[in-house]
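User: My collaborator sent over this chain with a note saying "see what the structure looks like." That's all I know about it. Can you take a look?
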Amino acid sequence: MKATRAIVIVFLLVAIGAGVFFLPMRQGFMQFEGFVQSLGVIGPVVVILAYVVSTVLFIPGSALTVGAGTLFGLRTGFMVVLLGANLGALSSFLLARTFLREKVARWAENNPKFRSLDQAIGKQGFKMVLLTRLSPVFPFVLLNYFLGLTGVRTGAYVLANFLGMLPATFLFVYIGAAARDALAGPVDASAGFYQQVLKYVGLLATVAVVVLVTRIARKALREAEQFEGGSTLTGKPRLDPHHEPASFEKMMIVDDEHDQRLIENCHPPDWTNPTPARKYNLVVIGGGTAGLVSAAGAAGLGAKVALIERNLLGGDCLNVGCVPSKGVVRAARAAYDASNGSAFGLQLACAPAVAFATAMERMRKLRAEISGHDSVERFSKLGVDVFIGNGRFAGASAIEVDGQRLDFHRAVIATGARASELAIPGLQDAGYFTNETIFTLTELPRRLTVVGAGPIGCELAQSFQRFGSQVTLLTDGAEILPREDRDAAAIVRRQIQRDGVRIVTGGKIQRAARNHQEKILTVTIGESTLEIPCDAILVSIGRTPNLEGLDLDAAGVDYTARGVEVDYRLRTSNPRIYAAGDICSRFKFTHAADAMARIVIANALFLARRKVTDLVIPWCTYTDPEIAHVGYYETDAKAAGFDVATITESMNHVDRAILDGEDEGFARVHYDTKSGQILGGTIVARHAGEMIGELTLAMVAKQKVGVLSSTIHCYPTQVEVLRKIGDAYMRTKLTPGLKKVFEKWLAWRR
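Assistant: Without extra context I'll predict from the sequence alone. Here is the result:
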């Protein structure tokens, strides 16, 4: 296709040249130009109107642009085209905005890709319009209507449109003016050498700008597609004024010695809030990962910082998330290994018994030890003023916490998210657990139903099954782990089912009931009805941002049901206030919150311009085997405009995986065939979370797939699977023609 296009372009250029030199085009042009000049002002007006009409009717105006340069010369032609193109673009924009915007907005509520683009263009309309206008690669007539469907402001559109058209308009009008010079005869020597040099330098500079900006614009649009904060299309949620967050008494066993130690560290019972400073460089609301990193980092750089937390410092990660869940996962894995050691020569006199209470106590003990790192005492020693209580905005630059006013230069909202609730009749009366309460168990439920087959649901379903529960994993979707590649999720599903978990897909819960100690879920699957009896229910269906009680409207901070709205630099609609972590991001991971907090420190306190879209964020589901991923999935990379190729290498080709008995899995890398740059990848292996770091580092360094081939690993290790992918990529470079050249060279060398 590219070769055919090049041949056509060359043919047209040759034909035009032949016409100029061998056909009577020059005489015809002179006559037509004389006619146009005889029209006076009417000639340019007609061209302007023709440009407006062609733009509204989706007719490309490149020919008119070049023609204007040919008829009127560089100066007049440039002004005519600029006026006509801007009027035509504005007409198309207003037509789309008036008649189609509301319909598209309703449709886009269920289209995440357009929703994220609409958000990006609405927030950074001037930049996005300017970039796409500066590059002629983006279709002019279609883009006018598309931008009318988005949330960009009309004023920003007009100004960016005008400025963005200048280089490309100059380029095309100049081509027409050059044709005019060729048709009109030899250049007048009196024009001057320097005038000609200036003209050609301007042309080259314009071409350079167009090429460079095209690349920048494409990158900006890809960032817009990747970025998903709150959407302006969803509207503000109706917050429950009576919502009460789960208190630490429900998250902990308050009379347990280990949990008592954690509470003393992270919510000291006798704590007295300090006297507020006159003004803070940074006030942080929320003591989870994003809040703690923001506070510690800013204080370490010399800022005066206040940190507000109403519950337990450490947030979900320490108290009810990553730390306790991975302690439970590790204990369950030990139970599994003890029961399945015969293949390795392990012979036990009796079947291993699981002491569930001991496993949970181990988790609580280790959690309490880790809690010292997030303690009130530690942050106070760092110079942070720690306030225990409910913080709410009292204006654009002030926060109140339990009657005390904290004035700030900058603030960070880092209040995180909580487990989403299910509106199922009878569920409240039947009773259920979430991740906030499940870790208080000291007795193993005989039968456990897990509602939701995302990462948390799958991890805990497998773990409790390995402890000895009879687990039913229930999802209303068609499969478990819906975000992951289907073949990756299938490997995890097979292992979970081998462990004994019953998986029910496509199930809609109609009601819940309680019969003495037994709980019963009534579920419909298609036309059939199923009753699932159990002793405990764990609900894990997603996360809801903690927006209640902040009084964001008083601070002028925009938010939706998806959380606080931020731009690429994590600024809210109030430029004094930033947000980080689960409250504003679709990446609801501890490490993502940590990375965003570092961006906030740089941007809020030191006038940096770091962007969250530059982050390369991996994630891992800690089932056995694990699924780890980073970057694009294949379909997303194709949608972003990349020419994608994929290499998959099975773990059963890796010696260490075979020796470990962990050879069911694979590694997969997606890359751009044009540049060889790594776009993303997935690893399914028992230690995938440890292995994905190498691929993440390669992406951060913008390396090509070939670097995986040149990276040396210790032998034998499972991460060698990435070197095999690199080798497979290098083999694609050895074409039959190149191989013949090598064969001849080596034959000559013999």
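A starting point for your reply to your collaborator: The longest strand covers residues 404-413.
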